[in-house]
Design brief:
heterodimer; A: 109 residues; Folate-binding fold; two-stranded antiparallel sheet; B: 414 residues; alpha/beta; FAD/NAD(P)-binding domain; D-Amino Acid Oxidase, Chain A, domain 2; 2 domains; eight-stranded mixed sheet; 11 helices; 18 strands; 29% helix; 27% strand; globular; binds flavin-adenine dinucleotide; binds zinc ion
Chain lengths: 109, 414
């Protein structure tokens, strides 16, 4: 059972209040983009063993979307942050790096 | 290999069962193989078996980081059926189901295949239409299935409650030749047969890197040292993304936990398999008498082989309405496996951007039933470069938009 903090309304609750929304920071591609870009956006996922940046919705609460940094190997939640950003903020990266030395965002090839 | 037979049992009975030999060898890796298969789950072992049996390629190693069959193959609820919607699916799943019918004889190993019949319940009008459509598609594909009314469902499964207020039973899709098999035995039977052909099943050996030269695979690094190969099959289910990363490409799938649980054993109460996709629950009774229950996947990416408790609770709560007798049962064990789910809920059997590397993954929540068919097809793909059974399942289908959409027929499905 995950425990998450919603950065939109400040509530900390069990995962049953939330709904997982998959990988965060996907770059969206529209009609005129290349096939590869569109495939990447639609289907390709990092699916990492380890740190995963992901979207969640506070379904049974304020209803808003936010982002979380979580480890898929231990289920540890490093922190949550606003969805209004293209990349994880420095505080979150620092929290993750403290626990997972050497980690860096976008290191996945 | 000494064959198993009634005669062998009689012989051993006269000498305190001292003559049974080990079912497979425990070899150390050689420096080089013609083909390496990563992952000794059902699909990896079946691939190796058919490489040997159908193509005479026996200089093969199957490398497993844990114990053979310890992944999803030993964790699933063993439902076998082939009533899918799309033609490419029907072809490979029906091939697979038919191979299950003779598997015990082929492998000389009792896999306890039990074609007891599978009902997929329709509990919403949407499902009624969906399954009637599937029944028609199956008729065209030559896969015998039948749309049945609620009374027939009740005849086949007397413990069911048709008049649930939330989830009434409106009918079902019946595949009389579907059923279950003993999951461990499937892995063990293939491992024994592979070992007998001279293949090396290497357990407790994790692949940590895939070595390439000039866009072609040359070998793997493992916790037991480097091993060279000409061809490599990646058959690791939930860990496919990790292995693909080692080989330098990405996959259109995500790994999530899927859970199952069993009750205390009771007397025979149900001799068919029931799937209730609206409530994400499915049910069968094992030979030991346990009610075997599976649910839907957890929502988030996960590699821990355990899921969240509330999913189990939701599954059981919903099934209780349709099977009131379940509410009196104690649940004994609960566990999870990591399943690899693709965007169209169909598997990937494919060449990859790396020459000599083939991948078989994406079976997600429903690949136990596919083990023999998938191994058959994957072996052909690896030996000949293509197979009529895998042609449609290449990973390029996502870029080309040629999906094999089974999200209706497969749904939660198993
Ligand atoms: C709870 C549950 C219920 C299910 N119910 C059904 C059902 O009723 N019917 C059905 O048809 N299907 C069902 N499935 C799905 C089915 O179990 C899988 O699709 C199938 O078993 C996959 O087999 P596999 O051989 O591909 O994978 P696995 O059996 O998972 O084997 C993959 C192997 O690869 C190994 N591996 C991973 N990484 C490495 C590495 N780096 N080096 C070496 N080895 C590695 C793993 O240890 C593992 O043993 C269910 C799954 C679950 C979890
Ligand atoms: Zn909130």
């Amino acid at each position: 059972m995950l425990i998450l903090n919603c950065p939109c309304c400040g509530v900390t609750a069990e995962e049953t209040e939330f709904h997982a929304g998959g990988e965060a920071h996907l770059k969206r591609f529209g009609p005129d983009s290349s096939k590869e870009d569109f495939e990447n956006y639609m289907f390709m996922r990092q699916n990492p063993k380890g740190v995963h940046l992901e979207r969640w919705r506070h379904n049974n609460g304020c209803g808003k979307w936010f982002h979380a940094a979580r480890c898929t190997m231990t289920l540890e939640v490093f922190g949550t942050y606003s969805a209004q950003t293209y990349e994880p903020p420095k505080e979150i990266c620092d929290l993750i790096s403290a626990k997972r030395p050497g980690w860096s965002w976008g290191a996945f090839s | 290999m000494k064959r198993y037979s009634a005669f062998a049992i009689a012989r051993e009975a006269t000498r305190y069962h001292s003559g049974w030999e080990r079912a497979w060898r425990a070899p150390e890796p050689k420096t080089k193989y013609d083909a390496i298969i990563i992952g000794a789950g059902g699909h990896g072992l079946a691939t190796a078996y058919y490489l040997g049996k159908n193509f005479g390629i026996t200089n093969v190693a199957i490398i497993e980081k844990g114990w053979l069959g310890g992944g999803n193959t030993g964790r699933n609820t063993t439902i076998i059926r082939s009533n899918y919607l799309q033609d490419p699916s029907a072809a490979i799943y029906e091939k697979s189901r038919s191979l299950y019918e003779t598997m015990s004889q082929d492998l000389n190993y009792n896999v306890m295949f039990s074609p007891r019949g599978v009902i997929m319940l329709a509990q919403t009008h949407h499902e009624v239409r969906g399954y009637q459509r599937t029944a028609h598609a199956n008729a065209l594909q030559g896969v015998p299935t039948e749309w049945i009314n609620p009374q027939r469902v009740k005849e086949l499964c007397p413990i069911i409650n048709l008049e649930g207020p939330r989830y009434p039973v409106l009918g079902g899709l019946w595949q009389a030749r579907g059923g279950t098999a003993r999951h461990d035995a499937v892995a063990w039977g293939y491992a024994r047969a592979c070992s007998d052909m001279g293949m090396d099943v290497i357990q407790q050996c994790e692949v940590t890197n895939i070595r390439r030269e000039g866009g072609k695979v040359v070998g793997v690094d493992t916790t037991k040292g480097a091993i060279d190969c000409d061809k490599l099959g990646i058959v690791v289910a939930g860990h496919s993304g990790d292995l693909a990363n080692m080989a330098g490409f990405r996959l259109p799938l995500e790994s999530v936990a899927l859970q199952a649980l069993v009750s205390e054993p009771i007397k025979p109460a149900m001799d068919v398999v029931i799937m209730a996709n609206t409530v994400h629950g499915y049910l069968s009774q094992s030979d030991k008498g346990e009610m075997v229950i599976g649910g839907g996947t957890d929502g988030y990416n996960n590699y821990t082989q355990r899921g969240s408790f509330h999913h189990v609770e939701e599954t059981v709560r919903a099934l209780n309405e349709t099977f009131p007798m379940l509410s009196r049962l104690k649940m004994l064990r609960q566990w999870g496996g990591i399943v690899d789910v693709t965007g169209d809920r169909s598997p990937i059997l494919s060449k990859t951007p790396v020459d000599g590397v083939f991948i078989n993954c994406g079976w997600g929540t429903g690949g136990f039933k596919a083990i023999p068919g998938s191994g058959w097809a994957m072996a052909e793909l690896m030996a000949k470069g293509h197979s009529p059974l895998t042609d449609e399942f290449g990973m390029e289908r996502f870029i080309e938009g040629r999906f094999i959409d089974e999200s209706v027929a497969a749904g939660v499905a198993h």
